[in-house]
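Closing statement on the pyridoxal-5'-phosphate sub-project.
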Amino acid sequence: MRTTLPGVELCYAVKANPHPDVLALLVDEGASFDLASPGELDLCLLAGARPAGLSWGNPVKKVTDVRAARAAGVTRFTTDAPADVDLLAREAPGAAVGVRLAVGDDGAATPFAGKFGATEDEAVALLGRARAAGLEAAGVGFHVGSQQRDPQAWARGIDAAARVAARLGGHAPAELNLGGGFPTPHAGGPTPDVTACATAIRAALARHASWWRPRLVAEPGRALVGEAGVLRAEVVLVAERAGRRWVYLDVGRYQGLAETEGEMIVYRLRTPGRGGEVGPVVLAGPTCDGDDVLYRHADVRLPLDLAAGDVVEFLGAGAYTASYASVGFNGLPPLPTYTRPDTHETPEEGGN
Ligand SMILES: *Cc1c(COP(=O)(O)O)cnc(C)c1O
């Protein structure tokens, strides 16, 4: 990403995978961090991140969140509502704030559907309100929705941010936050790579470069860690039900496969040791919850000789898995993460 988006400060979105080894590696690589809670703040500091490289990207904050951030030396915040600007002015005077615009997130696998972001009119007003309250009205930005498959989504966001900047004239924000959303390969169709997103971003920036050359920030989560992880599940049961073959695994919606909700993300699967003929399956998790079915509609095919005890691997599962696992629904433990190749094959730990 550093090569593809040169000159862009990369703030890793910690929620994608907050494992301490992942954060420590990214600190070594010079990353900054986008965080959302005191817990993520502590993880970043423990991993050795510098406070100057921490940006509080969650526009939904408690008073105690802002106090914890300020005490740790965090001075950069994203906002999208008047009451939050007022909170920052009270609790973090002088801090640098960026306003998050609501932009179209149509091509995203997991759209925000109106949860975040200000309109362009509201953004102009929020930046004015921040400045009047003694904050640094530092930036404007957006998030095109996670696993965004349309590179033009960034171009539309940049154009919207530029319209806001133009209306602010001499007070145009000095920073543009391109957010996250950069996609990773999954089943069910081609995914643009980060280069295609970067091309669209560069073209859009060039349209405004004669009058606006903001400092650039991006907040990749999935794109930095997704391909780094494989999730290993074990087949518990194979059964025929109403003419369909159901495969039950020991990892489901509640052990880290939250992004299978609505079949938003369809992982590429691998079945080590089973290479024969394949057939369609319904893929389900192990718990007693009716929602714990991973894929019922997606075209998932697994070897016909698959049986209890076999391994099914989910590829590209380094993002939004372990951090989503429940603490113990139905008595099943949260998903363990192994960051060293020599530890993940041991029989006692190999189940998931
Ligand atoms: C989750 C999140 C990101 C990362 O999104 P990805 O789709 O994983 O790249 C970036 N910014 C904010 C504010 C987020 O909430």
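The radius of gyration is 22 Å. With this model delivered, the sub-project is considered complete and its resources will be redirected to Aim 3.
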